[in-house]
Amino acid sequence: MAGIRWKRLKTAADVRTRLLEALPLGSDSSAIRSFAAAQHVECSEAVGGVIRCSAPARGRWPLISAKWLIEFHLEGDRLAGIAVREGLTGA
């Protein structure tokens, strides 16, 4: 799979669509981890059935960086949903 150009994605909906193309609902957590490693996405361990990840986003202001904040919601060990929002990381 080619690398996703995270900073070119303009909206959280664009990110979610791209993620669902790569990780259809029902994918297991090992597929999520493999995808994240291949795409250079930072992720936490699953806590409460959610794997939280972040990827770079295009910032709107010169001194403030942005990230896509991604939550992979699991039911058991399977992907049940994806939530995405934009967050700021500071200078």
Summarize the structure.
The chain is α+β, with helices and mostly antiparallel strands and 91 residues long. It contains two helices and four strands, in the order ααββββ.
What labels would you give this structure?
alpha+beta, four-stranded antiparallel β-sheet, 43% strand, 23% helix, globular
E-strand count: 4
Name the helicity range. 10-25%
Question: How do the helices and strands follow one another from N- to C-terminus?
Answer: HHEEEE
Shape field: globular
Classification by helices and strands: alpha+beta
| Major sheet size, sense and barrel closure | 4 strands, antiparallel
Mean pLDDT: 91
Task: Give the strand content.
Answer: 35-45%
Task: Count every helix, treating DSSP H or I runs of 4 or more residues as helices.
Answer: 2
Distance between the termini: 31 Å
Low-confidence stretches: none
Across the major sheet, the strand order is 1-2-3-4
Task: Give Rg in angstroms.
Answer: 13 Å
Give a description of the structure:
With 91 residues, this protein is α+β, with helices and mostly antiparallel strands. Helices cover 23% and strands 43% of the residues. The protein contains two helices and four strands. It has helices spanning 12-22, 29-38, and strands at residues 42-43, 50-61, 64-75, 78-90. It starts with 11 loop residues before the first helix and ends with a strand. The model has no long low-confidence stretch (mean pLDDT 91).
